[in-house]
Amino acid sequence: MQRSSQAAGSWARSSIPTRCRRTPLRARAKVLLKTYTGTARLMTDHGFDRRFGRRLFARLRAKGLVNVAAEARIEMLQRNSPGVSLMRANYQQLRGEMIDAGYVTAEEVDRDLSRLDDPDFLMPSSIMSNRPLGDDFATAKIALRNPSRRSQIMRQSGERPMSGAPTGVDRRGAVTRISSFLAAAAAWLRLSVTRRPTGEHHEAPSSAPTRRLRKIATEEAFTIPEVSAAMLEVVRRGGPALDLKLWTLVYNTTPVEPTVARAPSAAGVDRDALARQLLPRLLDVEHARLAEMDASGVDVHLLSLVSPGVQMLERDTAVSLARLSNDRLSETIRRHPTRFAGLACFAPQDPAAAAKEMERAIQSLKLNGFLVNSHTNGVYLDDQRCWPILEAAEALDAPLYIHPRAPSDGMAAPFRDCRLEGSIWGYGMEAGTHAVRLMLSGVLDRFPRLRIVLGHMGEALPFWMWRLDYMASPGSRAALKNSLKPSEYMQRNFSITTSGLEDPLALRYVIEKIGVERVMWAIDYPFQQTEGSVAFIESAPLSETEREQIAHRNAERIFRIAD
C-alpha cells in the first residue's frame, strides 16, 4: 500500500505544472477535494487541522460551494464501500472514477467545464497566469458555478487582468490545470480514504466492451395462437378502449409475413404497416427469433405474453388462457434452457385465481417472475381487490414487471388524437401513474418487500423524482398515505429496464439517480430493432463493470436467471 501511495503521489505531482507545486500536495488535494465535493468530513478525519477545516467548511458553505448531498454520499461510501484502484494518468478516466464513486455527478463536472467554452466568460487572472492556486481555486470554482458573480468576486479578491493578458479565456490551459488538480485530488482520495479488496478495481467509462458481452434482454414479447384468436374476437367486437387502436392493426388483418428480419430504426417508416407484420414474429419463438438473436449476439430473451396479455378477456377465458400460456412458455424454456427465461402472466380479473397461478408459475413451472400489463378494466394494483396478487408476489419473492398499456378509460380523452395513446406518449404516462399510485397509496408500506420492475428507463419516474419528493413527502397532504418519500420507495422496491429507450444520456442519468444495480438492458422485441439495442448497450459510455451489470448481471440476480 505504501509503495502504491508513493507511486500515485509521484504521478500526481508530475501532472501538476511546475509553478503550481509550492503548496504541499496533500494539503492542496484536501483543499481541492473540499472545494469540489463539498465534504468537510474527509478533511477532518485524515489529520487536517480541525479548526481550520471547520472554518473553511463554514466559509465554503457561505459561498454556496458545499454540496450536503455529496457529503452524505462520501460518508456513506466510507462506511460501506471501501476500496482502492490503480491511478491512471488520464483525466477522463479519473473523472469517470469520481463520478462512479459518487464524489461528484457528471452534470456537475460537465456544467463547470462547459463554462470554459464560453468565449464571453473570464476567469480570475490567477488561473490564466499559472500561479499556485491555493484559495484562488475556490474563487475560480465560485466563478465557474455562477458566472454572473465573476466581476464581484474579482473585485473582492483584488484580481485584475494581467498586463497584456488576453481578454478571453485560455481554455486549453485552464482545462489542463483544472484536470491536473482533479487528478491530484482523485489520487489522494483513492489512496488515503478508500481501500478495495484485493483484485477489485474501479473502472472508467469506455465506449465499447473489451471482451464478448453476455446479453440478457428483459422485456421480450411472444404470444400463442389461442390468445391471438381470443384477442381477434375482442378487436372485432370493438369498444372505447384505446388499446384497440394498435391491436386492431395487429390482429384484425390478414397476417403479413415480415418484409424485413427486424423492426427498422429509420425515421419516417410506416409504423401502421409494420404493426400488421408483428403477429408472425410474436408467434414464432423458436425459429426466426433465435436466428435473429444469434445474428446479433443476444444470449437470452426473458419472454412475456404480449400486451395486454389476457387482461381484455372475460374472466374465465382469461384464467384458462393465462394458465395455457404459462404452460407453453415453460415448455419452450425447457427446450431452450440457455436461450429463454420467462415471466408468467395471470388474470387480475380474478385475484384469487391469479394468486394461485402465480404460485404454480414459480414453484412448479420454475418461471422467473410475473408481468402484468398495468390496469385491468380501469383497476390498478393499489385497489384493495388486487392485494392478493401483491401478497403472492411478495411471499414468492419474485419480481412483478408492470408493463404499460394504453391509458384506462378514465384518463383516455386527451390521448385519443395523434396516436398519443401508445408508445409515443400514453404508455409511459399510464405506467408511471400506476407506479406513483403504488407509492402514495401506502401499498408499498403494507407490502414492503414487493419487488417491481418498470420498463422504458423507469417510465420517466427517475426524471420526476425530485419533484415527487418535494410535493409528496410523508404527511405533506391529507390524502397521502405514504410513510417514505417516493425516491425511497424507488430505491427499495423498484428496478428498471432500458426497453425502447436507447439514449446514453438518459441511461447515465438513471444510473446516477437510482444506482446501476437497479438497471437492466432490454430490447422490447419485436417492437424495437434488435441490432440497434445491441449497439446501444455495447457502445454506451459505461465502465466495463457497469456494462456487464446492465447487460446481464443484474438480470441474473433480479430474475434469478442462470449464468
In short:
The protein has 563 residues and is mainly alpha-helical.
Q: How are the SSEs ordered, and which strands pair?
A:
Blueprint (H helix, E strand, L loop, with lengths): L1 H13 L10 H13 L3 H4 L5 H13 L5 H13 L10 H11 L4 H9 L10 H4 L6 H11 L4 H8 L13 H22 L23 E7 L2 H13 L6 H8 L19 H5 L2 H6 L4 H9 L3 E6 L9 H21 L4 E3 L8 H13 L6 E3 L14 H10 L3 E3 L23 H15 L2 H4 L5 E3 L1 H4 L1 H11 L14 H8 E4 L6 H11 L4 E2 L9 H10 L4 H15 L5
Parallel strand pairs: 1-2, 2-3, 4-5, 5-6, 6-7, 7-8
Short descriptors:
single chain, 563 residues, mainly alpha, TIM Barrel, 2 domains, 3-stranded parallel β-sheet, 50% helix, disordered N terminus
> Pairing-aware structural class of the strands and helices?
mainly alpha
Number of strands: 8
Quote the distance from N terminus to C terminus: 35 Å
Low-pLDDT windows of residues? 1-54, 65-94, 115-202, 260-264
The global form is globular
Beta-strand content bin: 5-15%
CATH homology-level superfamily of the largest domain: Metal-dependent hydrolases
Report the total helices: 27
Averaged pLDDT: 75
CATH architecture annotation name of the largest domain = Alpha-Beta Barrel
How many independent structural domains?
Answer: 2
Major sheet attributes: 5 strands, parallel
Helix content percent band? 40-55%
Radius of gyration: 27 Å
Give the strand order, joined by hyphens, for the main sheet: 4-5-6-7-8
In CATH terms, what is the fold-level topology of the largest domain? TIM Barrel
Question: What top-tier CATH class of the largest domain fits best?
Answer: Alpha Beta
